[in-house]
Amino acid sequence: MDQFTLNLIVVGITFAIYIGIAIWARAGSTAEFYAAGQGVNPIMNGMATGADWMSAASFISMAGIIALAPAGGYQQSAFLMGWTGGYVLLALLLAPYLRKFGKFTVPEFIGDRFYSTTARLVAVICLIVISVTYVIGQMRGVGVTFSRFLEVSTDMGLYIGAAIVFAYAVLGGMKGITYTQVAQYIVLIIAYTIPAIFISLALTGNFFPQLGLIGSYAPSNGEISMLAKLDSLVTELGFTAYTAETSNMFNMILFTMALMIGTAGLPHVIIRFFTVPKVADARSSAGWALVFIALLYTVAPAVGAMARLNLTTTFWPGAVTGPALSAPALSIADIESKPELSWINTWKATGLLNFEDRNGDGMIQYFNEPAAVAAANKAVADAQKALAEAAADADKAPLEAAVTEAQAAQAAALAEAKLGDKSLAELGLVGNELTKVDNDIMVLANPEIAALPGWVVALVAAGGLAAALSTAAGLLLAISSAISHDLIKGALNPNISEKGELLAARISMAVAIGVATWLGLNPPGFAAQVVALAFGLAAATIFPALMMGIFSKRINKEGAILGMLAGLVFTAVYIFLYLGWFFIPGTNVYANTPANHFFGISPLSIGTIGALVNFGVAWIVSMATKAPPREVVDLVESIRIPRGAGKAQAH
User: Which terms are listed as keywords in the entry (predicted)?
Assistant: First the structure.
């Protein structure tokens, strides 16, 4: 059976399961649509939360960004530390108290705690901005996965994924999504760990990838560790050592903190804890979620390192047993003729991987092209393009002179730049010929790079789609409930019937799917990067409001409203300065490079500063204005005392 047919069968079976569950668990009331009737078992809720949490960023992009990080994999470990650490904060500081409150949504808690419809509406705005930003990354993950495994364009893959989400999320609401996410967790964790086990056995002889990461490199007969082998190869090719420490620890700390408090402030994760019967179950399900998440997150560093090693040894076959340059690079003839290398052209067709034989030697040399060489190569290309596009009757002498001058500068740059103990000129190299490897393909391509069986490749396709679709559904539900429950019922039409509210929820979710699909066509970065931006926004808006609402009796509505607005505006403006206003390409004020970041703080890390702005503004304004009324103080005390919360509904 060919790979395409196998992919269709495996992915088709999983989709049939998801839609079947949605039909079986169709929501018939607003309680079931928003909170699954508040009767979900804590272990099952932990598994669903794990699927909701482990998005395309976790499954598809995280290991890829760790694998291909220009500054080494260590710096990107912030994703692992921040995302898992945030769950500890969520379990200890937020989940049980929000479940004790006994309502459906985060804005509803903020509106009641800060005794203000305006506060509730500001929370709705923050929630929608966060969720829409987050869902862009999921839709990109869906498009990337479909484009490869169903052999369609990335855009078409995005449309197919949107249709699947529409089918089970709009129909089932939180009840359908919960049970669908349990199935999706099982699919994604199997799909992630099985290839990792195969690859770990091949590279290190260890069954457990976690041990393989620190184990010996098998082809060297145990003489060198796997990470030492990887370090030696990437440094030989001009890259930063894989295990090198970060050059900007301050930014890494801020980034890790932004991910941690952003995790604890993500509305689509928080609402999962409204679905369990009791307060104790909220804390328990957070613990179970952390266990289920750890099953993937402890494997991710090994997947990233092994993917980078396999990619390098694929394009430098001699690197398997010796230095990278000890044998010629991979030839184009081998790419075209060997079945085990067919994945290269297949991924090239998606536009997410590309190569170019710049020196015409029939091989693809992969290395870190020095900046001076890259600039010289661009200057030659620009000069040659200007000459080629000149009018037939134009004076071409100045253009020809410009080409000659650019080529002389290129030759000097190639003679100056070295790879190992030889210059690029001596090696006959013009520049890096593996011109594009998208971070988001590394996990999906990993089984093919390692020449694993076809059924494993198909399983990874199903897992990647499960990860992206599960989180997309949770985010879309958060957006839908914010609009229908908090905006329409809470502010615009308090007397709306339950049937009308349920219809409004489904319509708003359908609209949200359309908007998310449109934004996913032109994402502002890799899946993990886009998701990190959403975490920054959550850290700067929702998390401080929830923390102050639960643990402070003095913060009032004026402080909460202005604090959230200040955190949102400050963080969003800083992000837009580097990534474009509202993520529109070409509208950024500054290039998103470390040299342009204020105090070295990247847009991915600014959420921590935004949270401090939120806390500071809220405290100052609250101290300068009237204290909250007595009934609000009593509400805070009631939330803090663990005495049960609301009646559960059996399923």
Answer: Cell membrane, Ion transport, Membrane, Sodium, Sodium transport, Symport, Transmembrane, Transmembrane helix, Transport
The SS3 of residue 494 is coil
Mean predicted confidence (pLDDT) in 611-622: 97
| CA distances to 47, 181, 205 from 22, in Å | 17, 10, 42
- Three-class DSSP labels, 376-436: HHHHHHHHHHHHHHCCCCCCCHHHHHHHHHHHHHHHHHHHHCEECCEEHHHHCCCCCCCCE
Total residues belonging to the chain: 651
In order, the DSSP letters of 105-122 are: -HHHHHHHHTT-HHHHHH
Which helix (H) or strand (E) segment holds residue 47: the answer is helix 42-53
Measured between alpha carbons, how far is 608 from 240 in angstroms, rounded to an integer?
A: 28
229 within 8 A of 221, measured Cβ to Cβ: no
Q: Please state, in angstroms and as integers, the Cα–Cα distance from residue 329 to each residue in 1, 353, 365, 447, following that order.
A: 32, 17, 6, 21
> Which of 533, 599, 609 is CA-nearest to residue 567?
609
Q: How far is it, in rounded angstroms, from Cα 26 to Cα 175? A: 7
Amino acid letter at 121? L
Question: Residue 449: its pLDDT value, please?
Answer: 85
Kindly state the tokens that stand for 560.
């909460």
CA pair distance 515, 141, nearest whole angstrom: 16
Least Cα distance to 524 among 582, 601, 602, 608 occurs for 582
How does pLDDT run across 540-598, given as a tens digit for each residue?
Answer: 999 999 999 999 999 999 999 999 999 999 998 998 898 888 767 788 899 888 889 99
Partners of 437 in beta bridges: 353
Worst-scoring range by mean pLDDT, 11-25, 309-323, 420-434? 11-25
pLDDT exceeds 50 at position 650:
no
d(CA 201, CA 205): 4
Query: DSSP labels for 291-348?
Result: HHHHHHHTTHHHHHHHHHHHHHHHHSGGGGTS-GGGSPPEEHHHHHH-GGGHHHHHHH
Domains of the chain are 40-307+448-639 (1.20.1730.10), 322-436 (no CATH)
Q: Which two tokens stand for residue 374?
A: 């890259």
Nearest to 135 by CA among 565, 462, 511: 511
Q: Is the model's pLDDT at 469 over the cut of 80?
A: no
* 333 against 645, higher pLDDT: 333
Token representation of residue 555:
């913060």
CB 534 within 8 A of CB 543: no
This prediction has a pTM of: 0.79
If pLDDT is split at 50, 70 and 90, which confidence band does 215 have? very high
If you compute the radius of gyration of the chain from its CA atoms, what whole number of angstroms results? 26
Residue 186 near residue 175 (C-beta atoms within 8 A): no
Rounded CA-CA distance 553/640 in Å is: 11
Q: Are 410 and 110 in contact (CB under 8 A)?
A: no
Q: Cβ–Cβ contacts within 10 Å for residue 591, how many? A: 8
> What DSSP designation does 364 have?
E
Other CB atoms within 10 Å distance of the CB of residue 337 = 10
Share of the chain above pLDDT 70, in %: 91
